[in-house]
Amino acid sequence: MDRLTVRLTGDKELRRKMLRYQTLAPQLVQDANVATGFEILTDTRLSLTEQRAVDKGQLRASYHVETTGTRIQGLQWKKPYYNAPLMPGDGTYSDNEGRQFDGSLNVILESDAGVAIGTNVLHGPFNELGTVKMDARPHLFPSSEKARPKLIKRQAAAMKKAADMVS
Question: What is the DSSP letter of 113?
C-alpha cells in the first residue's frame, strides 16, 4: 500500500507569529475603535449644538467615550471644545453653570477592543427618541451611522497592519 507523508517545517515560527498576531490585532483594532468613538462624540456634540436641543449644556457635556483598556491614555487626542471626560475613569462632567455630575456609563464591554459612547443623563434618551409630548431630536444614532463606513475601513486596516507586522 502506498503512503503519503507530509513533513511540515517552521511550525514553531508559525505559532510564534500567530501569538504575536493575537496580541497586536486587538490593540490596533481598539485604536481604530477609539478614534471612531471620538469622531462620533464630536459629531454628537455638534449635532446637539446645531439643533439647539440643550440649553444648559448638561447633556452635551455628559457625552463621552469609555473603553476597557488603558491604551487610550497613550494616544494623542485633541480635546473637543466642550468640557467632558475623555479618559477612562474620568467619571465627572460639568454643565455650563459649573455643576458637577457623575458621568460613568456603567456598561460592560464584551471585548478588550470595546468602546462605548454615551451619556447617563436622564433626559438623553428623551431627546434622542422623543416622547409623547416632544419630537425626537436624534443626535447619537445619526452620528454613529455616519461613522460606520469609516469604522469598518479602520478595523480592516488594523487587521491588515497587524498581519503585515507579523509577517
Answer: T
pTM: 0.71
**Can you tell me whether residue 93 is helix, strand or coil?**
strand
User: CA 132, 133, 139 angle in degrees (round to 5)?
Assistant: 85
Report d(CA 10, CA 30) in Å as an integer: 30
Residue type, 124: G
Note the pLDDT tens digit of each residue in 132-159. Answer: 998 888 999 999 999 999 999 999 999 9
Separation in Å, CA 33 to CA 49, 96, 113, 144: 24, 29, 7, 12
Question: Is residue 113 packed enough to be buried (19+ CB in 10 Å), middle (13-18) or exposed (0-12)?
Answer: buried
Closest CA to 69 of 116, 120, 17, 22: 116
Per run of 10 residues, the mean pLDDT along the chain (length 167 residues) is 61 82 86 88 86 72 72 41 40 63 65 78 84 90 94 93 86
DSSP classification of residue 100: E
Cα 140 off chain centre by: 13
